[in-house]
């Protein structure tokens, strides 16, 4: 579904992403994990061309994304950022309807889908007339998720989608998001610095440092077979607790 083939990104001579390669199968979730400044967000943004790769090739659904116009490409990719990116002068309904309008949906279809997504994300229907500034951070992020999913894109890019929320709200929004039926059919690339979040949500993890992938594999690969001291140190004293969490998650299916 997604192929990153030796992609790199230079900013004014500085190599922010260095020769990164990985594949994400249909319906899988790939997590780009690492500390701030490791290149994970830059890598993610190259997939919807918010940042253009300096070199390398990216394919989505078998097509080289450089052959598509960025605005057309982005209509087929859901995108959720940490800072939600909602238009402050648009109502909730208008924000959610941005992509459907670009796709020339009928007004009645937009209204029906908007109502359905508000319900699925546990937001009252009357919120559709509110503005982002009238909502809490958790409510804003639920609207952002609705906007990303309403047009049923096959690929979803998540850039620290829960990072700006307090721990209680973060856990609630993440749980409701993970339980969405529509998510089961999506191919997802998730950026996070949260180890527990990576283990809970990822089928595969790419641990990054200084623009490069240090190790990639299943959560069990990174936990049980770290390739070097950096990988072991990244998990640090949390390793035993994280292993128990992973085993419990695996046991629950």
TrEMBL record:
Protein name: Osmoprotectant transport system ATP-binding protein
Cross-referenced Pfam families: ABC_tran
InterPro entries (alphabetical): AAA+_ATPase, ABC_transporter-like_ATP-bd, ABC_transporter-like_CS, P-loop_NTPase
Location of the ABC transporter domain: 2-235
Family membership: Belongs to the ABC transporter superfamily.
Keyword Membrane in record: no
SMART domains attached to this UniProt entry: AAA (SM00382)
Gene Ontology BP term (one): quaternary ammonium group transport
Keywords: ATP-binding, Nucleotide-binding, Transport
Molecular-function GO terms, alphabetical: ATP binding; ATP hydrolysis activity
Keyword ATP-binding: yes
């Amino acid at each position: 579904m997604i192929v990153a083939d030796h992609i790199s990104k230079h900013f004014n001579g500085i190599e922010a992403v260095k020769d990164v390669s990985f594949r994400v199968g249909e319906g899988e979730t790939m997590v780009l994990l690492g500390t701030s400044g490791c290149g994970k967000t830059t890598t993610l943004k190259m997939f919807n061309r918010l940042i253009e790769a300096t070199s390398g090739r990216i394919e989505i659904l078998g097509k080289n994304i450089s052959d598509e116009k960025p605005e057309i490409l982005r209509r087929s990719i859901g995108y959720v950022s940490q800072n939600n990116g909602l238009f402050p002068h648009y109502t909730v309904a208008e924000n959610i309807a941005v992509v459907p309008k670009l796709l020339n949906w009928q007004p009645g279809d937009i209204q029906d889908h908007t109502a359905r997504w508000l319900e699925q994300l546990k937001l009252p229907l009357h919120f559709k007339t509110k503005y982002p500034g009238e909502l809490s951070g958790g409510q804003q992020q639920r609207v952002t998720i609705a906007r990303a999913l309403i047009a049923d894109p096959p690929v979803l890019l998540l850039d620290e989608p829960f990072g700006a929320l307090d721990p209680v709200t973060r856990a609630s929004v993440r749980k409701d998001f993970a339980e969405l039926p529509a998510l089961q059919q999506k191919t997802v690339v998730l950026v996070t610095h949260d180890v527990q979040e990576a283990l809970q949500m990822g089928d595969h993890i790419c641990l990054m440092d200084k623009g490069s992938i240090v190790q990639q594999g299943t959560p069990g690969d990174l936990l049980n077979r770290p390739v070097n001291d950096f990988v072991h140190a990244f998990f640090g004293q949390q390793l035993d607790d994280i292993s128990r969490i992973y085993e419990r998650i695996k046991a629950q299916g």
